[in-house]
Amino acid sequence: AQNSEGYQAKTKRLKTIQIESGLYVEVNGKNDDIVSYLTSSTTDLAASAKKEKAKTAINTFINYLSVNVNPSAGQIVSDNYRDYRLNSSLTYEGVTYFVLDNNEVVENAACKAKDEDYFNNVYAKYIDDRCQGYIVTLVPEYHSLLYFESMMLIFAEIMPAYLVAGLLVYLLPPLCNPRGHMTLGKLLYHISLADYNVLAISAKKFLARFAIFYFAELVLSMVTFGIPYLVSFSMMAFSKQKQGFPDYMLGIQEVDTSGQKLFKSFDEIRLSGVDKAKKGVDFKVTYED
After folding, report:
1. Does the pTM of the predicted model rise above 0.85?
2. How far apart are CA 13 and CA 151, in angstroms?
3. What is the pLDDT of residue 281?
């Protein structure tokens, strides 16, 4: 899916918007948000340089919105940025970081904050808390591209991995253990699947159980906010037999088989009761004088 022409084009466009916005930089062929880049241990920059780059990123972003989106979007962020810096709660040791000078917001000379404090507490924080939200809400194209990538992540990566994991965890190990049909967890705690006669269930019944679990619970839960899981878990927690939905439907129960064997039939039980090591009856007749 990632190699398809459509995906490649959308990914390229998304990266272009990120770079043009000023909120991202390209590092080794991949885009990294500007704050993560500047705070990375591999970025060898002085605190003053980090502060200036963060300031430049914010101004670049405002200009990008005004030119490439619409002037009102740029004005929204510009006004918010101004109010943010002049907020009376934005202080260092009780002194505000910024003051007005000829109606321009400038750094307060009376503030004893260092460049590192300005970077961490003002500019980087504003980029992370405000700008990253504004680029999604004020740039429709960017929002649609993110939505496309999210859907690809869910339907082309997470869901297939989730479904394959279900097969590997809940189907393969039990098939390799036909007597108790135990998953790895059940094998660890010696818990087997049995019918109401405490006999091992057949392969057909196990496959029916798996089909109900896989499609009615696991798959359906992905599109119904986990409701089938909640229903099945509630049945396990509060029902008398402590059975989940598939077990309830098929008359299956989980039994502790630690130290004992689970039989497949009554005939097997009867045969196991024959003491093959016991010495046979001696019918030899002894005559005495």
Report:
1. no
2. 17
3. 47
